Amino acid sequence: SLEVLQDLEDGLKKADADPSVKAVMICGENGKFSAGADIRGFSSPKRRGVGLAPIVSRIESSEKPVVAAIEGVALGGGLEVALGCHYRVAHVQARMGLPEVTIGLLPGAEGTQRLPRLIGVPAALDMITTGKHIPATEALKLGLVDEIVEENTIEAAIRLANKV
């Protein structure tokens, strides 16, 4: 939603400006990182506000380490947010993907550029063109996530942020 994007942008600006903040951790609510955009909003008139691609670029360009704590799902724009992060920790039961292609849409927040850089062209093309969801264990093998955990993902992400 626009509110989530605005809150994400505001939080990033605040963290970047605060010298006491050494790292940033991004997580979702209720056991889900993000299922991406609500496609019903795509047909509505142009809305004002911040877009996802500039937010992901802001995350990526942060001078402070940004760690994604992925629980549940990171799909579509949610995965693109995670791709903008410098590090990714996923719960062992998490699933990731860019499913929008299954309804005729391409990932719109530069996921098609970031994913191949991270996991290589063949694996990225498979994910981008099929829309398949991959489990955390496969994401770790591909290099999409840096660590998978069975315990509290947020605590693990904070530990990683403190380490880096």
Question: What brief labels describe this structure?
Answer:
7 helices, lyase, enoyl-CoA hydratase activity, three-stranded mixed beta sheet, alpha/beta, 2-enoyl-CoA Hydratase, Chain A, domain 1, 16% strand, 164 residues, 7 strands, isomerase, four-stranded parallel beta sheet
Q: What's the name of the CATH homologous superfamily?
A: 2-enoyl-CoA Hydratase, Chain A, domain 1
**Main beta sheet strand tally, sense and closure:** 4 strands, parallel
Number of individual domains: 1
Question: Which CATH top level class fits?
Answer: Alpha Beta
Question: CATH fold name, please?
Answer: 2-enoyl-CoA Hydratase, Chain A, domain 1
Strand order of the largest sheet: 1-2-4-7
Radius of gyration: 15 Å
Overall pLDDT level: 91
What is the approximate shape?
globular
- Helices, by number, come to 7
Q: How many strands in all?
A: 7
Give the CA-CA distance, first to last residue: 31 Å
What percentage of amino acids are in beta strands?
Answer: 15-25%
Class by SSE composition: alpha/beta
> Strand-and-helix sequence, N→C?
HEHEEHEEHHEHEH
The low-pLDDT segments are: none
The CATH architecture name reads Alpha-Beta Complex
Task: Please bin the fraction of helical residues.
Answer: 40-55%
